[in-house]
Design a protein that fits this description.
The chain is α/β, with parallel strands linked by helices. It has helices at residues 24-35, 48-60, 75-86, 112-140, 161-181, 203-212, 221-233, 248-251; strands at 15-18, 39-44, 65-69, 94-97, 143-148, 185-192, 241-244. It contains eight helices and seven strands. It binds NADP nicotinamide-adenine-dinucleotide phosphate. NADP nicotinamide-adenine-dinucleotide phosphate is lined by residues 20, 22-26, 44-47, 71-73, 98-102, 121, 148, 150-151, 192, 194-197.
Length: 252
């Protein structure tokens, strides 16, 4: 078998846990971490087949891959993932908390059930995973955590009301996590803008997303990957929030 993933480099041989890694941005992050030579601990919820296919592709290239499944919005799913990660191959060195929903509803149309679902998945899950697994990293003596937030958490978009609120609450959470997990573990947040639009967006919606950025263009998964890599490789930044949004959050 031909090995295409490197065995040297600052991140090689490190284990990285990525939530929501079967599709879209999470999948791109998984492929990029494989290129860094990491051992991959990949999570999916509904996209089981996509994750199995991705794991197969990565293993063919020589990467070591472990897969985990579960609903991170549910207490049982969250607890099981944490338990599973304590075992084979042991607590990760690096973590990318990427899984989220994207509920398109103004406040007045949001049901109580939707409130709970969005807050559980987009806020509680990444913060609980960060502190529970972060404490394990801390005991090991080293770790790096990146939470994927959203530019809508910096400047809310009322059409995505509860999503914006949940992502906004990640901002103080990152600072609290950074304090609790220091000095062994760094915790930072990347806040993407329009890097990979929903698959059902119309041409008019795509155009509006472009117009809302200062740089008058869409971003790409690679823009987010570069920011994540930067936080993983840096040893003197924690509690930071980095917008990768073409300046959307400056415009309001
Ligand atoms: N795409 C963008 O332009 C953009 C812009 C700003 C911020 N972001 C942020 O970047 C991250 C990734 O974006 P994306 O567009 O790639 O996201 P996405 O496709 O909407 O969702 C990412 C993953 O979240 C997982 N997920 C959904 N519900 C779950 C649940 N109950 N339990 C566990 N996992 C669940 C899904 O896994 P399964 O498919 O396996 O169910 C999905 O693959 C998100 O945090 C998002 O808020 C993205």
């Amino acid at each position: 078998m031909r090995t295409i993933y490197p065995s040297s480099g600052i991140l090689s041989r490190k284990t990285v846990f990525i939530t929501g890694s079967a599709r879209r941005l999470g999948r791109s992050l998984a492929l990029a971490m494989a290129e860094e030579g990491c051992t991959l601990l990949l999570h999916a919820h509904r996209s089981k087949k996509e994750l199995r296919d991705l794991a197969c592709t990565l293993r063919k290239g020589g990467a070591e891959v472990y897969t985990y499944y579960g609903d991170l919005g549910k207490e049982s799913g969250l607890k099981r993932i944490i338990e599973d990660l304590k075992n084979t191959p042991g607590p990760p060195d690096l973590m990318i908390l990427n899984a989220a929903s994207f509920l398109r509803k103004p406040l007045h149309q949001t049901t109580l059930k939707e409130w709970d679902e969005v807050l559980r998945l987009n806020l509680r899950a990444p913060v609980v995973l960060a502190i529970e697994l972060g404490m394990m990293m801390k005991r090991k003596g080293w770790g790096r955590i990146v939470i994927i937030g959203d530019s809508l958490g910096l400047v809310p978009y009322p059409l995505y009301a509860v999503h914006s609120i949940a992502k906004s609450a990640l901002l103080p959470a990152v600072r609290i996590l950074a304090e609790e997990l220091a000095p062994e573990v760094t915790v930072n947040l990347v806040a993407p803008g329009a890097v990979l639009l929903p698959e059902d967006y119309t041409q008019a919606q795509i155009q509006r997303a472009i117009e809302r950025s200062l740089l008058k263009t869409l971003g790409s998964p690679e823009d987010v990957i570069e920011a994540v890599r930067f936080f993983f490789k840096n040893k003197y930044i924690t509690g930071a929030i980095l917008p990768v949004d073409g300046g959307r959050s400056l415009k309001g």
